Amino acid sequence: MLEKLLDAIQPAATDFIVEIGPGEGALTRYLQSAQALHLIELDRDLAARLAEQFPKATIHAGDALEFDFAQFPAGMRIVGNLPYNISTPLLFHIAAAHAHVSDLHVMLQKEVIDRIVAAPNTGEYGRLTVMLAPWFETRHLFDVGPGAFVPAPRVWSAVARLRVRTEPAFVVPPAFARTVSAAFSARRKTLRNALRSVVDVAEIEALGIDPGRRPETLSPAEFAAVAARAAPDSETR
203-235: per-residue pLDDT in tens? Predict the structure, then answer.
């Protein structure tokens, strides 16, 4: 699995690499030739061992969710086996610093990877898919069985590549996140009902979008168009 992952990443001597959750350093040892290598590890005991094992790397002992990725230069590459319990907020956190990122190669629970790369009108398509769509081209690379880990988890994992787009796929209006969140918090409802507090039905109809459609049928670009018609006081995080 490490060979497959390295074949996907293809680290180069000129790379600025940030590894999240290096753990025992199984992948880290193959990234040492990078021009700069930063390791973010929550477990302080592991962080101390990594500092001894990889003296040329810069160790950041702390929570990746609170880490300022924007402090790094543009073009950094992010790799890692992301903590499954915080995968969605961590991806959103990294996406906020997308201008500094070249690509991500991440291992996550398979169902999360399925959501990242999902197409509209499928069961996996949802808020995570849409929120990453403006900034990233996403691709499922390969699955990873429980036997690749010690101890073996009860779930399958997968590896995905998220490559930052040269330009956003579409203009992202201020109310984009709020609109998407409202829509998928009630995904079985129609747009008319799910977005009642965000945008008037007439505004949706003016876009040529049937307000009777369900959220999972809209493309990310259509969500952006709807969000652009949101009430002036709409705010997002």
Answer: 999 999 999 999 999 999 999 999 999 987 644
CA angle, corner 125, sides to 90 and 197, nearest 5? Answer: 85
Bridge partners (DSSP) of residue 39 are 19, 59
> Which contiguous run of DSSP H or E holds residue 111?
helix 110-116
Which region holds residue 76: left if phi is over 0, alpha if psi is between -120 and 50, else beta?
beta
Pairing between β-strand 157-164 and β-strand 58-61 as defined by DSSP bridges: unpaired
Here the tokens at position 227 are 């969000």
- Contacting residues for 199 by C-beta, under 8 A, at least 6 apart: 179, 226, 227, 229, 230, 231
Helix, strand, coil content of the chain in percent (nearest 5)? 35, 20, 45
The pair of three-digit structure tokens given for residue 98, joined into one six-digit string: 């997308």
Where does CATH 1.10.8.100 sit in the chain? 176-227
CATH 1.10.8.100 fits 176-227, yes or no: yes
**CATH assignment, 2-164:** 3.40.50.150
